[in-house]
Amino acid sequence: MKRIARSDRGLRGNTRQRGFTLLEMLIAIAILAVIAVLSWRGLDSVIRGRATISNAMEDERVIAQLFDQMRIDARQAATDDEAGQPAVQIGNGSLQIVRGVFAPGTPPRLQVVRYRLSNGQIVRYASPPLANVGEVRRALSSGDSTGGWSAIPLMGGVGSLATRVYIPDKGWTTRMSDVLSQINQNDNNLKVPQLGNAPLPRAVSGIQVAVGAHNLQVPLTRVFLVGE
Predict the structure, then answer these.
(1) pLDDT tens across 186-212, in order?
(2) Cellular component GO terms, alphabetically (predicted)?
(3) pLDDT in tens, 49-104
(4) Which domain holds residue 202?
(5) How many Å separate Cα 14 from the centre of its chain?
(6) Within-domain flag for 73
(7) Per the domain annotation, does 35 fall within a domain?
(8) Where is pLDDT greater, at 69 or 14?
C-alpha cells in the first residue's frame, strides 16, 4: 500500500506565536503613564502633608514655649513694694515684669524682664540678677542693650503684641495711669491704723496677652495670674 504523505503546514500555522500590535503597546504605555502620574501625585501629597504637619507642630511648640515663659515670669513677679514701682508695666507692644530670681544657695534677687515686638519677632530681654531696688532703677534707666542684659527671640512672624492688665475691683485696663492710681490707693489704705501692718496689695493681679501672627487667622490670647 502506498503511504500518504501528511502535510504539517496547518499544524505549523496554528502554533505560530502572535505578538502585540502597535495599538496594544500604545495602550499599555498610556496605562503605565497614568499609573506613574497617580503614584507621583499621591507621593507628593503625602510629602506635602507631612511638611504641613511638621510646620504646624513647630509653630505650636514655639507658641507654647512663649506662653510658658510668660506664665513663669508673671508667677514670679515681685510686689510693687519690692520693685519700688509697678511690678508689671505695659504699653507700646511691650510687657515688662520685675520678678524674683530664686537660686539654691544664693539670696533672692530681682530681675527685670521685657517682652517686646521687634522686626516681627517677640524678644525676651532679661537683666542680670539685681540685689535691691536701687539696682532695679539703674537697670531700667540704662536700657536693655547694655549692662549684661540678655536678648532671646522667642517667636517670629508676629504682626502684633497687645497687652492689658487686671486691677482687682476695677477690671481690665490698658492704661498705666490706672495702675499707678491703684498703687497710690493701696498705699493710702495702709495709713489707716487698722491696716498699718498689712502688706501692700498688688495693684495688678492678672495679665492678658494677645499675639497676632501671619500664620494665625485670629490672635492667640492667654491670661496669666500675677504672683501666684
Answers:
(1) 888 776 655 556 678 899 999 999 999
(2) plasma membrane
(3) 776 676 666 778 888 999 999 999 999 999 998 888 999 999 888 999 999 988 88
(4) 56-225
(5) 78
(6) yes
(7) no
(8) 69
Mean pLDDT score, 24-53: 78
Structure confidence by residue, pLDDT tens digits, 124-155 = 999 999 988 888 888 888 777 777 899 999 99
Contact between 137 and 83 under an 8 Å Cβ cutoff? The reply is no
Query: Does residue 129 contact residue 61 with C-beta atoms inside 8 Å?
Result: no
Alpha helix locations (H) across the chain?
9-14, 22-75, 80-83, 133-142, 176-189
Report pLDDT for 2. Answer: 55
Q: CB-hemisphere CA count at 13 Å for 6?
A: 4
Residue 44 maps to a domain: no
Using DSSP, state whether 195 is helix, strand or coil.
helix
31: in domain: no
Quick one: cell of 219? 490672635
Using alpha carbons only, what angle is made at residue 210 by residues 66 and 138, rounded to the nearest 5 degrees? 65
Do 112 and 139 touch, CB atoms closer than 8 A? yes
Helix (H) or strand (E) holding 125: strand 121-126
Q: H/E element holding 2? A: none
